[in-house]
Amino acid sequence: MSFGICVCISEEEEEMSTSDSSTYSKVSPAVTVVATTGIIAGAAVLIVIAILIIKCVEKTKQQSVSAEEQLPTVTATSSHGSTLSKDLTVVDMEPIYNFLEDIEKEKPMRFTPHHLVHLTNNYAEKLGSGGFGVVYRGRFPNGVKVAVKVLHGTTTSDKRAEEQFMAEIGTICTTSHANLVRLYGFCFDKITKALVYEYMEKGSLDQYLFNPNDRIEWGKLREIAIGAAKAIRYLHEEHEQRVVHYDIKPGNILLDADFTPRVSDLGLAKLCDRGDAPVTLTGARGTPGYAAPELWMPLPVTHKCDVYSFGMVLFEILGRRRNLDVRRGERREWYPRWAWQKHEEGDLESVIADSGVESKYQDKARTMCRVALLCVQHHPESRPSMNSVVRMLEEEEEIIAVPWDPFRCASSSASSQTPWSFGAVEGSSNSSRS
Q1: Which residues of 130-166 are buried (b: 16+ CB within 10 A; e: fewer)?
Q2: What confidence tens digit (pLDDT) does each residue in 371-403 have?
Q3: What is the β-pairing status of strands 145-151 and 133-139?
Q4: What is the spatial distance between Cα 169 and Cα 185, in angstroms, rounded to a whole number?
Q5: Where are the alpha helices (DSSP H) in 130-217?
Q6: Are residues 298 and 247 part of one domain?
Q7: DSSP secondary-structure letter at 274?
Q8: Does residue 234 sit in helix, strand or coil?
Q9: What is the CATH number of the domain that holds 294?
Q10: Do residues 242 and 345 share a domain?
Q11: Which is deepest, 25, 215, 374, 415, by most CB within 10 Å?
Q12: How many independent structural domains does the chain possess?
């Protein structure tokens, strides 16, 4: 490679420089040499930089290939029954590496069934199951734990189903709150439909309400209730579009390592316009025992159905028992009605004493009981907003008088039990946890 510089001097320039010819003759050669040397040096530096960049890129590619070759081999059939490609030996994890960078940007990723098999070690550890799917423990290549929820009844796929699924994913991805479980990504194809969430170390709230071996003090339960209420308030009143959850229950309130509550499973959520415009549903939603009456009857449905469900959760937090327990005496068999009767008699102390609430929390327990009675009013318009619920639980807002018996429409006889009143039963084979 050679470089040259052509210096042209006109006759006029020569005449102008005659008067100072001695000076010019000394400066001009020096300037020429410096300019030439600078250009050559600059070009050499650019060439060296280009060579280094090329080598770095090649080295990075080699390391990426080497890392993928070291990934464990996975079987062709997952343990939850999905048949994968027979020639599957090494999972292409390049999108995973890209996704780890997107985590900071909170961009959800679309996984393939092969990715999920690798993340869950071929679905080796089942965390639990519910009405909508089975949850498995998983892990990203960088060690971050995840929970992979494989949805039931999703072996077929069509354009409309995918559009509906993606719409729900879009809803979840627009939510961001300290008390909501974070969605990392999803999978949608003919083999598998799944959601990939952040992993919650302490499991779900129902474990600490109904398992006598995993009890926590009532003050912490109250904090959990307030945190969950704030998440629902965010969905109803603070998100850019109102989100209705439809399935608030202890099993959908997860707890991190510090027992901070995170509301999960927005799979039933739909977007509603601001205001109280009713939503049209094609079938029953929610879980018996927590679902509002209007979800099981041909009645208009608004976001107030979540308020009702949360009220039922408050009763279970207050009593640290299932709302329906057939092992109890007849009067205490259905806890919410018994609490109402004691409230009417001016004897909430009996409810608090039966719940075993520590003395330092008894005033707050009475407050929670009154808030729960407001939340489970039969008519949606009689229920408070979630903002009022939060403020009343935190004792920042005065509790209004309960207007009337919230259970007047439900018969006390077992023969006329309504699906919204009696759900999961303690001491019965029909009890369920998810």
Answers
A1: bebbbbbbbebeeeeebbbbbbeebeeeeeeeeeebe
A2: 999 999 999 999 999 999 999 999 999 998 777
A3: antiparallel
A4: 9
A5: 159-173, 206-210
A6: yes
A7: S
A8: helix
A9: 1.10.510.10
A10: yes
A11: 374
A12: 3
- Residue carrying the six token digits 């006759």: 11
* 417-432 tens-digit pLDDT: 444 444 455 544 333 3
DSSP strand pairing (261-263 vs 253-255): antiparallel
Nearest to 201 by CA among 255, 261, 253, 140: 255
Residue ranges of the binding site for ATP: 149
Q: Can you tell me the distance from the alpha carbon of 110 to that of 95, in angstroms, rounded to the nearest whole number?
A: 9
For 354, residues 6+ apart whose C-beta sits below 8 A from its C-beta are 319, 332
Give the CA-trace dihedral at 399, 403, 406, 411, to 10 degrees.
Answer: 150
Handedness of CA 162, 167, 170, 175 (dihedral sign): negative
Helices (H) and strands (E) in the chain, counts: 12, 12
Report CA dihedral (368, 374, 375, 379) to the nearest 10 degrees.
170
- pLDDT, one tens digit per residue, over 308-345 is 999 999 999 999 999 998 787 767 789 999 999 999 99
Nearest Cα to 246, choosing from 303, 323, 297?
303
Q: Is the dihedral of CA 50, 53, 55, 61 positive or negative?
A: negative
> Do 330 and 323 form a contact (C-beta atoms < 8 A)?
no
The Cα-based distances of 120 to 68, 72, 271, 368 in angstroms read 17, 12, 31, 40
Give the span between the Cα atoms of 188 and 99, in whole angstroms.
Answer: 17
Range of the domain at 329: 206-426
Per-residue tokens: 97: 């590496």
Distance CA 123, CA 307 (A): 36
| Residue 415: DSSP 8-state | G
Cite the active site residues: 247
Say yes or no: 30 and 143 in one domain. no
